[in-house]
Design goal:
heterodimer, A: mainly alpha, globular, B: alpha/beta, six-stranded mixed beta sheet, 12 strands, 26% strand
């Protein structure tokens, strides 16, 4: 285990217990008298912390893989249209007023699967990156348009406000059920992404050299579609759209690695988990009239200036 | 083990090329711009499927080989290589080991030494000169210890001394029994350093033989349309244009 991984694990070991204690009601570990402490810990904060770790790890790992695959430090898992596809599924379930607690995540996963299938269909057999990216962006804009349509045609004002709120992304009011949905899918997705890492290293030298090093571009593309689909689909299903994690985290981690794409996956997953855990915790304790700051909004507020900073650095040729 | 192109054809680019390349030799592919040199090399590397004919490695069709098995046998350096991430020279060279299960530290050290890069192993590729970068990319191919080394214009960015050093290193690879196939546009380099020259013109193989025959003044006149004659001693020949 290298130093970076060890540092991130140590930071997580400190952050997880702290995050359990922090919130509207602070729990003093040395004073077991806090009202409902056990319920708050076990039924609210622990599943929420688990979800932050799972979603963050999935988005961080997906971002690192996307940047390696596209050989572009500006790539983000949202780029392939899988997150918007999943969001569209979720929006549809809210629009239809599907009542079951399983309906929303299920619809979101179906949306992610549909986006993945469409992506695979359009991208074709060649495994070329340019067509693939364009196809993803097309799916993303189509899903975005359909979501706007669903909002504008919402059957009731209540459904409309539910859709808009959900799209902002959050980990508030989640339960163990969401953990059981997200955990296996994210783990499976990350395992698929782990299988792409040697190929991504080879892609550092470009498409044709990667092929000369034995990379099968078609197989790689399938693994990427399935891996990103599972991690991002699972995260949207339980938390809504949480942007910028997949973009920011690999950047923050890259300078501490040897810059091979494969050196980035594990630290990005750990750093993504840490970022989301800390950000969610800050959202929870930030005093805000009318409830808590939505995690998706907080990360976008953080992410947009970061993105600009990145672009300026690239302009100066230092990224 | 032979690498053979059997009656290759690609619409508009290559037609009817048949050649058997031998290990232990440096083979140069020469020809005017657009003659199909790079296409032939990518076909020989198994990265471009010909529309007609096939490329075989030790008798087996190259395209039927498992990609990783092919990658172990054939190292390929494209004409305009890219390096997407700012890795160190050592990491770059280690990418040549990807087709192999073992990290091959000895092979990496050997490749760094052969390309005179041992003192730069920790340097980021963005801080290399054009020549150092070209050597690092060649070291990446050498680190994979392939039986065949295929390189497209490997000498293009190198100064005199490093060009000579790279030629020496490639000759050593050939002496160790590897097959070396280079696309060269500089005919003097082909004349002085190759054992065999394939001359392409408009996708056809117009000459195949030892450099003195394949690149004779008459052959140059016929293919490149310029009058030229060779000056100097074997191994140190220079081409002088004589007519207009």
């Amino acid at each position: 285990m290298n130093r970076l991984t060890f540092t991130l694990l140590a930071a997580l070991a400190i952050a997880v217990p702290l995050s359990l204690l922090a919130g509207r009601v602070w729990i003093d570990p040395f004073d077991p008298q806090t009202t409902n402490a056990a319920i708050i810990l076990l039924e609210l904060r622990l599943p929420r912390a688990c979800l932050a770790l799972i979603v963050g790890a999935g988005l961080g790992g997906a971002g690192a893989t996307m940047q390696g695959y596209l050989r572009n430090p500006l790539a983000d898992p949202g780029l392939f249209g899988i997150a918007p596809g999943a969001a569209l599924g979720a929006v549809l379930s809210l629009w239809l007023g599907a009542a079951s607690v399983w309906a929303l995540p299920l619809f979101a996963l179906i949306g992610a699967g549909g986006a993945m299938a469409l992506l695979a269909l359009i991208a074709g057999r060649e495994g070329g990156v340019a067509l693939f990216t364009l196809a993803g962006m097309m799916i993303a804009s189509l899903a975005g348009a359909l979501m706007s349509l669903a909002i504008s045609l919402a059957p009731t004002p209540f459904a409309m406000s539910e859709i808009v709120t959900w799209l902002m992304g959050a980990l508030a009011d989640r339960s163990w059920r969401d953990v059981w949905i997200a955990a296996p899918l994210t783990v499976a997705g990350l395992a698929l992404l782990a299988a792409t890492q040697r190929s991504l290293d080879a892609l550092t030298l470009g498409d044709i050299t990667a092929r000369s090093l034995g990379v099968n571009p078609r197989r790689l593309q399938w693994l990427i579609i399935a891996g990103i689909g599972l991690t991002v689909g699972a995260s949207v299903a339980v938390a809504g759209i949480i942007g910028f994690v997949g973009l920011m985290v690999p950047h923050l981690v890259r300078p501490f690695t040897d810059r091979r794409p494969s050196s980035l996956l594990l630290p990005s997953a750990l750093a993504g988990a840490l970022l989301l855990l800390v950000a969610d915790c800050l959202c929870r304790i930030m005093p805000l009239a009318g409830g808590e700051l939505r995690l998706g909004i907080a990360l976008s507020l953080l992410g947009a200036p970061f993105f600009v900073h990145l672009l300026l650095r690239m302009r100066e040729g230092r990224a | 083990m032979m690498l053979a192109a059997l009656d290759l054809g690609i619409a508009g680019r290559l037609a009817g090329i048949t050649a058997s390349l031998r290990p232990g030799e440096v083979t140069a592919i020469c020809g005017p711009n657009g003659a199909g040199k790079s296409s032939l090399l990518t076909c020989l590397a198994g990265l471009l499927a010909p529309e007609a004919g096939s490329v075989t490695l030790a008798g087996a069709p190259l395209l039927g080989l498992d990609p990783r098995q092919r990658a172990r046998a054939i190292g390929y350096l494209p004409q305009t290589p890219e390096i997407a991430w700012d890795v160190s020279v050592e990491v770059l060279v280690s990418l040549g080991r990807l087709p192999w299960p073992d990290p091959g530290n000895a092979a990496i050290d050997g490749a760094l030494a052969a390309m005179d890069l041992a003192h730069l192993r920790g340097r980021a590729v963005s801080r290399l000169s054009g020549g150092e970068r070209a050597r690092a990319l060649m070291a990446r191919v050498l680190a994979g210890e392939p039986q065949w080394l295929l390189a497209d214009e490997p000498l293009a960015n190198l100064d005199l001394a490093h060009s000579a050093a790279l030629v020496r290193a490639l000759r050593e690879q050939a002496a160790q029994g590897r097959g070396v196939v280079l696309v060269l546009h500089d005919l003097a380099q082909a004349m002085n350093h190759a054992d065999r020259v394939l001359v392409l013109d408009q996708g056809r193989l117009v000459a195949d033989g030892p450099p003195a025959a394949a690149l004779s003044s008459e052959a140059i006149s016929a293919t490149w349309g310029v009058e030229a004659r060779w000056l100097g001693e074997p191994g140190g020949m220079a081409l002088a244009l004589t007519g207009s």
